[in-house]
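Margin note: ligand = flavin mononucleotide.
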Amino acid sequence: MSSSIPVQRHSARDFSDRPVALDTLRAILTEAQLAPSWENAQPWKVYLATGKTAQHLRQSHQDLNQQGTKSWTEVVPPKDWATLPQTNITAWQQNMQQFYTANERDQFVSRQRGLFNAPAIVYLTMPKNSSAYSAYDLGAFGYGILLAATRHGVSGVPAYELVRYPDEIREAFTIPDDEAIFMGIALGYPQTDSRVNALRPGRSDLNDILQVRD
Ligand SMILES: Cc1cc2nc3c(=O)[nH]c(=O)nc-3n(C[C@H](O)[C@H](O)[C@H](O)COP(=O)(O)O)c2cc1C
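Resulting structure:
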């Protein structure tokens, strides 16, 4: 792929049925492996669901949601966010409320519950006994996957939703007990006519997060 293609990445949450070729997925993951990490620690492992396994996971996830099964994650998010992220989260929620009609919001939730109809799902683990630096490394790897996917014409969304029923993931793969399922990334080709895919969240003004001394 040409490196001159500008990266216009945003999350897609409604994928078509078109599968992503395994060669393409392997190329995406290989490029993402160039992510820097603490003394090249590379603390991540990747579990990739495609075909029948992805289909099974989409169905079981939908069923668990429908049954109202209590969810949990192996890496616990904070109960209270610090002011900076909480302010941005609130702005995102308000933006989403305004952007979508009630029907579109229902569609958004329904796609999420069915794992976005993703033909390929990447689950990322790291050792349970990890420091915050490994979380930094894993995040770099995850963003590497999203950027490489964009270069290959594949869309994606990193999502907490993907990992909030860890048992279904552990049933599908052989994942050692000392690894924590940290994050999931759904990959595929977006449904072009779907409003769910039209959300384009903005970013903080650079001047609000940057301090320069010359
Ligand atoms: C750790 C993490 C968890 C996320 N969880 C979800 C999720 O459960 N559902 C969802 O629709 N999007 C999820 N997202 C996607 C974010 O909402 C999205 O990246 C953010 O709003 C910025 O939008 P953009 O990716 O389109 O630029 C998550 C992103 C990250 C990094």
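The pocket of flavin mononucleotide is lined by residues 10-11, 13, 92, 112, 157-161, 183, 201 (CB under 6 Å).
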